[in-house]
Amino acid sequence: GKTSLCVNLAAGLAREGKRVLLVDLDPTAHATAWLLGMDQVGAPGAAEALREERLRDELLSPVPGYDRLALLPASRSLPTMENELREDGGHAILRNILEATDGFDFVVVDTPPALGAFTSGALFAADAIVAPVPAAFLPLAGLRLLEESLAKLKRRVALRAELLGVVMFGADPREAVTAQMREALQRDVGD
């Protein structure tokens, strides 16, 4: 859900003529594998940008079939970078890198599912958040946890991100739970 949302949002914006940078911060590298193929997983990318505290053009990969979409791929050393970032004020490092992405209309960040250093850093760097929510009731608790985490981060640091909306995935319109989830999301989050 999360990676699918990021990849499809980035591709859709690029198709609409926007210059988009997709940043793969998830150590599973699913967005990188999806867009560039398995043989590109592990190439220099996000970990090197974080380690150097700057984004070099050589780290960006063009995405085949999308001339307005670039990818900062997940790299092999990304898992060890999360520990380093946690110790070195990584949220500010990531924000500085992403704010220096001149030439892009949008930056979409695929993060790990847990609220670790990468996800906190992405939230700190973001202007808006779109959250994927599976069509089931238990994940509503996760959405509430995200909202609570955002409120807590806003109190602690200069977080400017707002929850722009949610995208329900895995929905089957024939199932009653889909209609119930849609109603619950509209009640809790709005349209």
What would you say this structure looks like, in words?
With about 190 residues, the protein is of the alpha/beta class. The protein is built from 8 helices and 6 strands. The mean pLDDT is about 80.
Number of helices: 8
Distance between the termini: 19 Å
Structural class: alpha/beta
Instruction: Report the strand count.
Output: 6
Low-confidence stretches: none
Radius of gyration: 17 Å
Strand order of the largest sheet: 2-3-1-4
Largest pleated sheet:
4 strands, mixed
Give the overall pLDDT as a whole number. 81
H/E element string?
Answer: HEHHEEHHEHEHEH
Instruction: Report helical residue fraction.
Output: 40-55%
Provide the β-strand percentage band: 15-25%
Silhouette:
globular
Summarize, please.
The chain has 191 residues and is an alpha/beta fold.
Name some characteristics of this structure:
191 residues; two-stranded parallel sheet; alpha/beta; 8 helices
Question: How does the SSE layout of this entry go?
Answer:
Blueprint: H1 2-15, E1 20-24, H2 30-36, H3 46-52, E2 61-63, E3 66-72, H4 78-87, H5 90-99, E4 106-110, H6 117-125, E5 128-134, H7 139-156, E6 162-169, H8 176-188
Parallel strand pairs: 1-3, 1-4, 5-6
Antiparallel strand pairs: 2-3
